[in-house]
Amino acid sequence: MHILRILQTVDRRVLYVLLMLSVTLPFFLTVRLPMRVSPATQALYDRIENLAPDDFVLLAIDWSAGTRGENGPQTEALITHLMRKKCRFAMLAFEPQSPTLCQAIAERLGKEYGSIEGVNWINWGYRVDAKNFLKGFVQDIPAVIKTTNRQEDVTNLNKFPIMKGIKTASDIKLLINIAPSNIYQTYVQFVAGAKKVPMAVAPTSVMVPEVFNYLDSGQIIGMMPGLPGAGEYESLLGTNTKVTRFANSASFAHILIILFIVLGNVAMLLERRQNARAGGAA
Amino acid sequence: MEHATTGARILIPLWSVIIVAVILFARKKDLFIRRIQGLSAIDEAVGRATETGRPMICTTGLGIDGGVEIVTLQALSIVSYIIRTSARFATRAIVPVFDPQMLAITEEAVRESYAQEGRPEQYNSDDVRFLTNRQFAYAASVAGIIAREKAAATFLFGYYYAEALIMAENGHQVGAIQIAGTPATTQIPFFIAACDYVIIGDEYYAASAYLSREPTQLGSIVGQDIVKGFILILALVGSAIVSVSAFAGSATGTLFTQFFTK
Amino acid sequence: MLEPVKGGLWYAYVLGSLILVAALLAVLSLLPRRAKRYIVMTVTLLGGLFYALEFFLPTHPMMVGDDPNADGNFLTPFIVPMANVLPAISACAVGLGVINLFQLHGKRALKRNADSINSIAFFVSCIGMAAVWIASKQPQASPLSKALGKILFEGALQNLDATMFSIIAFYITSAAYRAFRVRSMEATLLLATAIIVMLGQITIGQLLTAWIPPRYDFLHVEVIRNWILTKINAPATRAIAIGLGIGSLAVGLRIWLGLERGSYFDE
Question: How far is it, in rounded angstroms, from Cα B145 to Cα B125?
Fold first, then answer.
């Protein structure tokens, strides 16, 4: 087959193998490519940086294992920052896997930063029917949050002193939704909009274009856009984990896609030109 | 806002009255809406499935928050039309359901669609099946059904997230003719890349009206267009007022904004 | 309002609720179709009316929960009880899905054809996962059940889920390669925009224009990407969102006021 035709019809399995290589090989590179922090990530970082110790933050964590690759590093970066700032935070989920996944992250980082469950942070666990639940939540948190992820009674303030003074959504100084879905819109509508709670979003990369709407209108104050956002945030925090290597993988995978798109198009245009010449000659 | 602002208190009831009035008007007089290209292809896709003797897969999406939602009901309305069309040719349609709350409604809608075409015996309860309400497990299940049944046509309507491409690419790989329609703007590019026809944005809500020609739905679409025209004028006038008053140092712009925010 | 009950009374409440629901369902199943339709329409209207009135009626300062500075009207105190009741009703619907799955796969497993193995795999996975997970979460869980729970949840489920998500990367590559062809002016514009946005979000792409001096910042690929996303993409997405919002209002009104015609609303 003519080379120009081959370049336009590369078998998808060849693409898959090349993609796998471009994603996995950078794991073995120690090169740290420089990263420019986007204004949206910077705004979120600055907002947390300006919180006072003991300010109460709600982490609305709605991701499952499927999107752990993106939402996991985002959650880690945010919890790290909150623990460093000694802010109190609660985790709430409308996704059944989230409480287990974020509990593990918070416990691990808690040991590192001396942050104690029940005192500095709490896992409110899984709830259903986001819209109806949140309508009640903004008005009276103790009336709808009665237990933790482990079904422990949160009204026991000796065991959960973190709950002291938490009555309504107005007591939340910052709300951050980490999710691969647009449940952030429900939070914008029923919590951030209802009680004027400052809100930020950490979506997966695919959701980013949609979230810009809310950022632009001022309904959210910042955003951590997917895995690149987590990398940017880590560079602000000064932590150096595997996210940098993940970011390298993303870079190489993007370049591969761009390369094949360009090759396919160049081959198509050259073939067209050849055919036109052949037609003209005939 | 926890409760309606002045703007919402006036405008939303006004828009509701307009929409309901046009619906009632449409029941007395025929209204026109333009052709939607992707929908004309539904008959072609059903025809392909009939010729090949292979089934069609019709999904109604994941919904925005799950549960019984307007977006999903709209998708079901389109799927009902597809099933009515396929029932005439005895073509099998498989409807995988994502949300357990939608199951009973979907079963009822599919059964009724067959009944409306005078083919109630064609309804097979096994073909309307709840798979799972886990996003990627659902995508894997639908991809599996597409591959096992070698679907001749796939209809992907409703709200989708990242799983959209998994289903659409699997359909593409088995050579199915694919028609998708979604209000999820982030998934439209993926559907465009993998499907034959895509219904985007507002067309999604107009789809069932176009297909059914049912006066309530036609009236609803025309009513929405009137309201959208109203919003457009309001946006233009608002931009002008806010810009001019900011330039002139007047408080009119602030008052105008407060009408919507307080 | 609606405080939780404990001890023996809890069992009485659960049993009483079950009997009440069973009796209600029995009565409803005996009613003619037309009557059922009117009941559905009435309940829908009342349900919608509650939230609509609570939202639109004028408010005044009042005590809501422990918040003395709240605003509300006479319906506002009922929002919190509804927030406790409605999610419970939604959760019950999961049972419907499980019943459907057991019916469907039960029939298929009994048929004993080539597909039966899939249905048997469903029962093994579903019952196995539920049993192990419940056992591993008990206060006196054995090390074996804890280990099994960890293997099934962290070892199997999490990775299977993550694998399905990562497959999208492969599909995006093949779909992009196939679809992005410069066959027209619009397609060329689309391709150029896509490449700028892709380059703008990766470090290698940002390096390509990193040499440009800061005074020409607007020529940096990540700045152009940001401009495309906020100044071109966002208004277009917002316009679609406004249209969809009005669409939702219209469909909501049709259902709420019983104007809808169609298989599950009509006779």
Answer: 16
